[in-house]
Amino acid sequence: MARAPGRVNLIGGHTDYSGGFVLPTTIDRATYVAVRRRSDERVRLYATAFDEEVSYRLAEGPPHEGWAAYAGGMADALCRRERLGSGFEAIIDGDVPLGAGLSSSAALEMATAVALDMLFADVASGGPLAPVETAQLGQQVEHEYAGVECGIMDQFAARLGRAGHALFLDCRSLSHEHVPLQLDEREAALVVTDTGVRRELAASKYNERREECQRAAAALREHTDEDIQALRDATPDMLETHGSALPEPLDRRARHVVSENARVLDAKEHLDAGDLGALGNDIFASHASLRDDYEVSSPELDALVEAARDTDGVLGARMTGGGFGGCTVTLARRPAVERFQQHARQRFAERFDEQEPTFYVIEDNVEAGMVS
Ligand code: GLA
Questions:
Q1: Which residues form the pocket of ligand 1, taking CB atoms under 6 Å from any ligand atom?
Q2: pTM for the whole thing?
Q3: In the chain, where the domains are located
Q4: Under a CB-based contact definition with an 8 Å cutoff, are residues 260 and 289 in contact?
Q5: I want to staple 316 with a disulfide (CB 3.0 to 4.6 A). Which of 166, 231, 283, 290 is the partner?
Q6: Which of 16, 154, 233, 251 does the annotation list as catalytic?
Q7: Interval 261-308: pLDDT, tens
Q8: Which listed CATH number (3.40.20.10, 1.10.260.40, 3.40.50.300, 3.30.230.10) goes with 2-181?
């Protein structure tokens, strides 16, 4: 049995697929996958969360929808790399909230990969699958089997994230650094707040944003002599000079990515230096940029961030994940945690009738690995 955790992203929203910087941390909730071999070529997957079983022959490949696309997609990817010796059975369980922007799908992919890699350790030549390669495989699975053109952040965090640390990642070079996140010692806490809102359209909007970034990079490439492969290569000066080459809304999309990359670098310095107040300001600024320039927020997410801003002792808050629903992440001084929750509950009740947000205070974030 293996596990892999969900993640929240402290800062670096929608920068990964432009080759930019991100600063996620794993949470204290994980997906567990228990596996055993079969003597034939059949795959049987069972998810406790849905009380549902999916079964198919290895050669047929998994369904391309629902939870089985992630677990089955990963198995298929391993099979194509000759890392599966036979069919197998898997039971999937866990406590990462599903579809909430906490990367339950990446956690499922990574837990499946770790479990199967161990189960068939005698089959694969060349030793165990390297963690970075596992993350890359997960991203491909997401593209091929789930139809979401995601970046590398979620799988990378779920596979390489470390307990007690945030993960600074350059999504182009994949160089990374584990940055200590000793929240206890610093008397601060991370609160994840789930709006409870799930939007069907989120996946197609996500792919649309990714395409807008590619178009913005292509337009800048035509107007400068610089080698612009992705928005990662654009600078504030470039946007100032050639901004008119970018038709609305591409100008704002580019402005978000360029400013967000700078904020991540700034935020990492503040985290290194233990200046949580300055880190919080970057986090608030990130939300404003995602809301106004990138347009991936929602009224519910905005209300939670406003409630955080209005609470004494809260240092920063922003939406996390793809957006349009899901969760915010709030960095708060310990004594402010309870106040923030009351405030957010009240704000929600006033604006969205009966809806109640759900709070998770992240205590000990966990990391991927074998459980038994
Ligand atoms: C989703 C994707 C990630 C990333 C975030 C936004 O979680 O899976 O790759 O793009 O959205 O930062």
A1: 9, 13-14, 16-17, 150-151, 153-154, 321-322
A2: 0.97
A3: 2-181, 188-362
A4: yes
A5: 283
A6: 154
A7: 999 999 999 999 999 999 999 999 999 999 999 999 999 999 999 999
A8: 3.30.230.10
